[in-house]
Amino acid sequence: LEEAPMLAEQVAAGELPPVEERVPSNPRVIDVAESIGEYGGTWSRAFKGPSDRWGPTKLMEERVLRAVMDADQNISYVPGWVESYEANEDSTVFTFTLREGHKWSDGQPVTTRDVQFWYEDVFQNKELMPSTPALYTAAGEAMKLDFLDERTFTVTFAAPYPLFLTVLAKESTGKPGLDRPGFIEPFHYMKNFHPKYADEAALAAAVEANGGQKWTDLWGDKGQIHAWWFNPDMPVLTAWRVATPPPADTVVMERNPFYYAVDAEGNQLPYIDRVEHRLFQDNEALNLMVVQGEIDLQSRHLNANDFTLFKENEDAGDYDVVTWTKASTWTIYPNLNTPDDTLRGLFEDKRVREALNIAIDRETINELAFSGLGEPRQAGPVTGSPFFDAELEKAGTDWDPDLANALLDEAGLTERDSDGYRLRPDGKRLSLVIQTRHNPLLPVLELVQSDWAEIGVEALVRNLDRTLVTQNVETGEFEMVLDAFDRSSIITADPVRFLGRYGFAHNYFKWWSSGGNQGIEPAADHPIRSVWGAWESAQGASSLDEANGYAQDMVSLFKENLWTIGLIGETPAIYVKSDDLKNFPEGLIDDDALRGIGLAQAAQFYFDK
Amino acid sequence: MRNADNLLEIENLSVHFQMRDYKLHAVKGINLEIKPGEVVGVVGESGSGKSLTARAILNLMPRTAQTSGSVKFKSRDGVVSVLDHGRESKEMRNLRGGQIGMIFQEPMTALSPVHSIGQQVMKTLTLHTDLRKNALVDRATELMDLVQLPDPRGMLDKYPHQLSGGMRQRAMIAMALSCNPSLLLADEPTTALDVTTEAQILNLIRGLQEQFNMGVMFITHNFGVVAELADRVTVMNHGIVEEKGTIDEIFYAPKADYTQKLLKLIPRLPEYAMADSTDAVPAKPVDATKKPEAEEVLKVENLKMYFPTEKNWMGKVTQELKAVDDVSFTIRRGETFGLVGESGSGKSTVARAILRAYQPTGGSVKFKAPDGNFHELTELQGDRLRAMRAHMQMVFQDPYSSLNPRMTVEQLIVEPLVNQGETDTKLMREKAANLLLKVGLKTDMLSRYPHAFSGGQRQRIGIARALVTNPSFLVLDESVSALDVSIAAQTISLLKELQDTLKLTYLFITHDLSMISNFADHIGVMQKGKLVEAGDTVEFFANPREDYSRRLLNAVPIPDPRRARALRERRQRELQTA
Amino acid sequence: MLWFIVKRILWSIPTMVLISIATFIIIQLPPGDYVTAYIAELEETGESITAVEAAELRASFGLDRPMIVQYWDWISNIVFYGDFGLSLDWKLPVSDLLWDRIALTLMISTLSLVLTWIIAIPIGVYSATRQYSVFDYVFTVLGFLGRGIPDFLLALVLMWLGFAYFNFHVGGLFSPEMADAPLSMAKFWDLLAHLWVPVVVLATGGAAGLLRVMRANMLEELGKPYVETAYAQGMGEREVVWRYPVRVALNPFFSTVGWALPALISGDVITAVVLNLPTTGPLLLRALLNQDMYMAGGFILILSIFTIIGTLLSDILLTLTDPRIRHA
Amino acid sequence: MTDSSITNDAQEPVVSTIDTAKPLTLMWWRFKRHKLALWSLYFIGFLYFVAAFAEFLAPYDPFKHSKLHAYVPPQQVHLFHEGEFVGPFVYGLERTRDPETARLSFDEDKDKVFPIKFFHRGDTYRFWGLVESDLHFFGIEGGRRDRIYLLGTDSLGRDLLSRLIYGGRITLSVGLIGVFFSFVIGISLGSIAGLIGGRVDAAIQRLAEFVRSIPTIPLWLGLAAALPIHWDPVFVYLLITVILALIGWTNLARVVRGHFMTIRNQDFVLAAQLSGAKPRKVVTKHMLPSMTSYVIAAVTLAIPEMILGETSLSFLGLGLRPPVISWGVLLQDAQNLRSIALAPWLLAPGAAIVLTILAFNFLGDGMRDAADPYQK
Ligand SMILES: Nc1ncnc2c1ncn2[C@@H]1O[C@H](COP(=O)(O)OP(=O)(O)OP(=O)(O)O)[C@@H](O)[C@H]1O
Ligand SMILES: Nc1ncnc2c1ncn2[C@@H]1O[C@H](COP(=O)(O)OP(=O)(O)OP(=O)(O)O)[C@@H](O)[C@H]1O
Ligand SMILES: [Mg+2]
Ligand SMILES: [Mg+2]
Q1: Are A57 and A241 in contact (CB under 8 A)?
Q2: Which of A177, A225, A219, A180 lies closest to A60 in space, CA to CA?
Q3: What value does the mean pLDDT of chain D take?
Q4: For D242, phi and psi rounded to 5 degrees?
Q5: What is the separation of C-alpha A407 from the centre of its chain, rounded to a whole number of angstroms?
Q6: Where is the ABC transporter domain (chain B) (predicted)?
Q7: D25: which residues sit within 8 A by CB, 6+ positions away?
Q8: Alpha-carbon distance D159 to D60, whole Å?
Q9: Looking at per-residue confidence, does D187 or C185 come out higher?
Q10: Within a 13 Å sphere around the CA of A217, how many CA atoms are in the beta-carbon half?
Q11: A387, A410, A586, A591: which is closest to A486 by C-alpha?
Q12: Is A338 helix (H, G, I), strand (E, B) or coil?
């Protein structure tokens, strides 16, 4: 085992145990992408504000298990902070074993007590978690945890739940502290802030000092204690831990001396000592940092539009532009729940949806708005995904305005007004408001607008504030919205896009997901019910293969109904990488279901000096 | 210099203005010289170029003026040819204020509105003397005292808008005299001063002139003042010098027709009112001139106007200046009420309070409108006040500041008509043109702006504006003070004519007792905010009751150099014996 | 004067109450709340929460209570404890966040403000006294160039030119390697090298305005007779101009200068955003967009207090500089 | 009321023969002497002319994109082809895309000569939405793909010149309405405060403080949600400018008030009041003219603010946005490093804005001088 030079001094001074005592006896071995690295260096990147913890989070988050992708884009799962995980035959009981000698970043051992604490005092605490997240339930019942010994625990469901592990590898929001994956809490630290364990007066004082009123203000959604990003004292399992938290303008993360992974030669990871995140407010400021060579590695907030700009300044800034493929497809969602009945009727008519689809000249959009770097396609699983469907990818993408016109005529939209626009059955002009929060995509919509004008459909483009669009989508007050169809690599990890959420049938989805308490009930024969049915079957399947089969059915249903108007997808995800930074793999799939940059295993990046 | 003795030599000075399609020759090649210790009186028609000549000496012409000729001044460091130097040059800077003092004709506008009197006077002192700090304040206070301003120390902290016309004029005089200049350019410096103050100021100038051998160019329309002060006189008309000569030559052997005409028109106090009259019992004028008693038009009762001068921290007034204190008088239709008195005694304030330019502190003003009813002016507001104002007009003491600088003469004159709803522009224009002619101006001036006129011309524009609506009541505040005697006479007769035909009523504020004696039916005398005497004009001039009134009458300058000299000598003798 | 100030302070109490209520209402005018903004942010990152979770979140932030209760909670904490509450977004006390950035904000905005004045007033005076001279035209054109190009674009262009043609390091206030270095001469130079862009950008926009206003007012005053008097007293041109008309011409400047006070604290948002300056302005912008109501509300309240103080200061300045107002 | 005594004895016509120009005529004379102002007036007139006849003067449909012509730099107009005079013409375009950087570059294809034709028939349009025509001021003869781009094209291959010409329409009309409104409100409230003073002034000052304290962003956000989404963006923008005016008056009001407080007791104001002028007239004819210079300067300063303000709200969904074309919107296209570095010609709208506001400024200068009685 090798010692990072940065820590050698502390070890010599006796402040830190030697590396052998810090690393589990059975550490995780991470395969390097190119070569064994060198220690040291600071990785500079940029962040946009307090909520932009997603960037730092994804580059180093730890999970029970995590996805890895090889050079042939084959996706597989490996254990994360557990030594092993195992499911029983019918996927009702899952057994996890912790690593021997694994330590929190403050040197305290990681045991099942930490898991038990999470389960009993957080997960089951009604003040922190008034309701149970659906992903921890099966057949309507919450999971049960049993602790066999210091290192082993089991999770038991009332019904088969084969997708449990897949979900765990992706899902990151689970209360409290929202952005943190569940399952483990540093008991020795957090107990100081839990009324069950803490001294009442001391806890009250801590709450007061933090400007809160209740103990949950310290811990829950309002608190900082529990958020690694804000609290440097919080013990973590990740490769780095925050040293200078926000609101500093430069947030600094430092290596975790107790990180549990090594490279093939036994060097404790990570190689890089420090990660610095500089605050920026506007994307152009970030672009300037990039071309000036101030960024060592970053993709977040970089836009494919700027590809040429970045490319041309590669030499000036001593960096390379490396691309991955984005799993998302820019998609216009017609709202099947729009309050306008006539319009809803039209949207429910597949001929209309198909006409709107094929009226669009996606080649031109790709050429003009994406410099030809993307691919005209329909919303659906990305190339390389196990659920990829070549037919869906091309469904409705053949540009054929004549056929589109014919389809609309067939759908009864034959009347036109003096400007040449078609009239709806109620005599009003067929005009569709497309909302979007993506400023850079306005040119795309301008092109769509002129394409649709050719078939007598008026598109009104409205660029709105992000929150406003979200609010409109939440309430269903929209006609069409342009957004990314994402999470389309491992769709079983998070299939909400297919189920209608935040897109073509948000209110139907709400009805379904709330068990009929909220939202709008679709007609009994509405095809969306079959999608939900397929997903329910997948969740309740007894094996992963069976579940995946049902998921594939969902994809087929999607293809059949053509609910969305996908435009361009598989655009390059731009990574700006400093010339010195090594072991960054090229050509992976950038998707949240695969945890974005996390797929590249940041702990093994290094600087070649 | 042609003559080494001369302090100032003006040779062939011409000034013209390029108007759009013609040249306006304001000064046409005049020559003038002043010796040290000499007072040269400059008299002449209003608008004849007197002020421009004075400004040329300082090289401070309006920027649009084109000047030719030469002006040579013997400064302490040698002869300076003024016009050869730039307006802002260092040479000029040395002369101005220090060696050449200038009293501008219109002191009301000539002072900076945002600096206190003290700051402005002391600025000249710091520029040209070594006085600093306390010595500076002391000297400034002394100057205030010299020009007869009350509360000299307190005066330093006042701002121009808090002072009466005469007070501002005196502040201006103090500024000009502060550095004991070797040449004083006094452009009608006593127009706003009552005769007693005027006499003292003249004394002061004479004293300095003797003490420092100061040369003085004294522009005035008041032949009494000329007679009192001047050694030589220059008479100007239409931009040329009509006649030059010693004072006696001009008064007793005038050659030019214009001079003769002027001398004939000089208003004089009635003989019976002359202080040095040897007649013990003056012959009273014939009673027939007296008009029959007419109805009352304006009743002023216990009028008070106080200005706060000090406030405590709560904003409560702790000390106030009683500018008008309990003044009552009545004016009858078709009459002229002459208001005279000390400078700063509250005359203008009375006028303004009557017309509700100020809200009086107390008292009542009743005005009989043409509808035959009395209206309490102090209580009117808004439209009703405006309705009353249609029957009243005022000619302001300071013509310059009362004319909107951005309006042409035509706009200014017709404005009251427009306000009354008149829309016929042609008719209005004709009226305006006629009025201009009546007050001795030319109709081609209609499209000029106020700043392009001489002081007297502006005053006449003010009169024309006041007359255009034929108001039934007119306040004239020092309205002919800047006019030469001939135009003043013409204006007065115009006013009289209007009064006779239209039964106009005038409140006439003036310092010119000689003029008012021929014009007013009743006279009121103000002192320190109070109306100390009021009564029939003849009565007043024959038998002034109050001590102050007598002093006023005594101090009237007499437009007769010999008599003035005799009087001066007599007074000096009296002083010595006393 | 003292009473005047006391009276104004009394007046400001109802004004503040009104402002605080209006602010609180207006902040909540946009549909949705912080949780909606939070959902939007999650969506953008490929995450989601359920409707139930959203409701729980609202409850935990107290967003589900009636507005009046929320208002009282907020304002009473401010009035009685000086506690501006927790920022929902940063999960930190609002006051901490503001204090953190206020020093730098004040420094930059004061610097650019003072620079604006130092540049604009003399040039305005010069332009008026030398109307239609070459320099008058030059400054006019430069001024309007600064005004006609959005600050944002100007900053970008300057930075790009600096980077592409002069190899300057631009953006932010320090180079990355200097940011954490201890205070030193080198760091100071580094700061100066970065500061010129924001200062130029901020100054050009503001200076053009003040310059033209000064010029206009000076032209109005220069023809007045009292200027002649000043010359007749023997003053040189510069002294005449600066002592007399400038004082009168500054009236519009004094009328509104007090409102520079709140601007000093918030800084220029757009420029700060593009130049990546760690000032308070972007913080407020972010808070408003994310509906971080305590952060936004507290900040706006502070700004309005300074607006009120600024008006008072302006009025005091006006009375001090112009006796005609003082005695009115 | 007749004044017999004055008019009757005027025997001869005194007015007709003499030079008594009306004040407005006087001003025009003085204005004409300011050559730069005169030229600026012509220039502004020209701009409005261009905006009025945009359809005819613009060579192309401003919305028509071209797949092959994205980011074409401004084309050079030549006169001589291979040493021979042909009159004004442009060469054809040769497009290449760098496979590495994806950058498009265009070279002149010296084999293709396209002479510029005036009164050329091209894209059809409806003039003012009424008359259909296809006549354009100029264009080139050639295939469907051959076009002339004097100012280059934008990212969608649309002719920038045409867009600039169309953009002037909104910028020079709607953009200036807001300026007008905020001036009316500012001047009115300022006048009232300065003229009446006392309690009225105090109330207006508190109102100003209040209005200044209102956070605008949430207000706009609220509005963005409240306004029907179908409404025409130009109309929404118009509404916004009016609302902007409702809160943008404070500065001007305070300045006017400050100035009025200094002059309200001056003799010429009193004289106007005594001559029976109503308060409104006293304000508009006497008091405000004394701040002509300031008001003109403030207007010229407000114009660029409004033009640029067009887009500052756009990220909230409220300002003008594409497909509406205005100079502000066009300039927004250029507000990124990408355009500055790769397509600097997209900054052309900025030049148009600067030129326009300079013209407005010099026009203002001329008007100021014309209204200034102290000028010759
Ligand atoms: N700026 C100017 N532009 C045009 N004409 C002017 C200007 N200033 C003065 N004048 C004209 O020049 C002539 C002389 O003016 P000046 O002021 O010297 O007269 P004045 O003799 O002092 O008269 P008064 O006794 O009335 O003061 C007048 O006719 C006046 O109209
Ligand atoms: N606005 C004001 N504020 C304070 N004091 C004032 C104001 N106006 C006038 N005064 C004072 O009131 C007194 C009377 O002034 P007023 O102008 O009525 O005098 P006047 O009799 O017209 O003198 P003059 O003959 O010199 O014009 C003076 O002492 C003056 O200082
Ligand atoms: Mg004169
Ligand atoms: Mg007076």
Answers
A1: no
A2: A180
A3: 84
A4: -65, -40
A5: 37
A6: 8-263, 298-553
A7: none
A8: 7
A9: D187
A10: 20
A11: A591
A12: coil
Q: Kindly give the residue spans of alpha helices, DSSP state H, lying in B282-396.
A: 347-354, 382-389
Interface check D225 vs C, CB under 8 A: yes
Give the rounded distance of the alpha carbon of C138 from its chain centre.
28
Q: In what order do the strands lie in the sheet containing B39-44?
A: B100-103, B183-187, B215-219, B39-44, B232-237, B240-246
Residue B75 and residue B9 in contact, taking contact as beta carbons nearer than 8 Å: no
Q: Where are the beta strands (DSSP E) in A456-603?
A: 458-463, 480-485, 565-569, 572-578, 581-582, 589-590
Q: What is the pLDDT of residues D86-142, one digit of tens each?
A: 889 999 888 898 888 888 899 988 888 888 888 988 888 888 888 888 899 998 887
- From chain C residues 271-300, the ones with a CB under 8 A of any chain A CB are 272-276, 278, 282, 286, 289-291
The one-letter code for the residue type at B526 is: M
| Residue B496, pLDDT above cutoff 60 | yes
Whole-number Å distance between alpha carbons of A113 and A153: 10
C-alpha pair distances (Å), A540 with each of A500, D30, D179, D197, D360: 20, 90, 65, 79, 73
Q: Is residue B97 within 8 angstroms of chain C, CB to CB?
A: yes
- Touching subunits of B (3+ CB pairs, under 8 Å) are C, D
Note the residue count of chain D. Answer: 376
Q: Which of B423, B503, B493 is nearest to B463 (CA)?
A: B493
| DSSP secondary structure, B504-522, as one string | -EEEEE-S-HHHHHTT-SE
D164-371 — its CATH code? 1.10.3720.10
User: How many angstroms separate the CA atoms of A255 and B337, rounded?
Assistant: 101
Residue whose CA lies nearest to ligand 2 atom number 28:
B344
CB contact under 8 A, D230 and A431: yes
Lowest-confidence range among A36-40, A306-310, B181-185, C93-97?
C93-97
Q: Which domains are assigned to chain C?
A: 94-326 (1.10.3720.10)
Give the count of beta carbons closer than 10 Å to the beta carbon of residue A391. 11
Reported as a pLDDT band with limits 50, 70 and 90, residue D45 is very high
**Going edge to edge, which strands form the sheet with A82-87?**
A82-87, A93-98, A152-156, A144-147
pLDDT of residue A180: 56
The span from the CA of B226 to the CA of B245, in Å, is 13
In this predicted structure, the answer to whether residue B281 has a pLDDT above a threshold of 70 is no
Residues 6 or more apart whose Cβ sits within 8 Å of residue B98: B127, B128, B179, B181, C234
Which domains occur in chain B, in start order?
37-43+91-264 (3.40.50.300), 296-391+505-545 (3.40.50.300)
C258 contacts: CB under 8 Å, gap ≥ 6: C309, C310, C311, C312, C313, C314, C315, C317
Which of these ranges, A169-183, A385-399, B438-452, has the smallest mean pLDDT? A169-183
- The span from the CA of B432 to the CA of B410, in Å, is 6
Distance from residue B193's CA to the centre of ligand 2 (Å):
13
Distance (Å, whole) CA A569 – CA A329:
4
Please tell me whether the overall predicted TM-score, pTM, comes out greater than 0.95 for this model.
Answer: no
Verify whether the Cβ–Cβ distance B58 to C1 is below 8 Å. no
B358 in contact with ligand 2, CB cutoff 6 A: no
Burial B34-62 (b: 16+ CB within 10 A, else e): bbbbbbbbbbbbbbbbbbbbbbbbbbbbb
Listing DSSP states for D242-258 in one string gives: HHHHHHS-HHHHHHHHH
Query: Tell me, what's the ipTM?
Result: 0.88
Domain locations in chain D as residue ranges: 56-153, 164-371
B126 vs B136: CA distance, rounded Å = 8
CA gap B365, B387 in Å, rounded: 16
**Residues 12-71 of chain B whose Cβ lies under 8 A from any Cβ of chain D:** 18, 20-21, 63-64
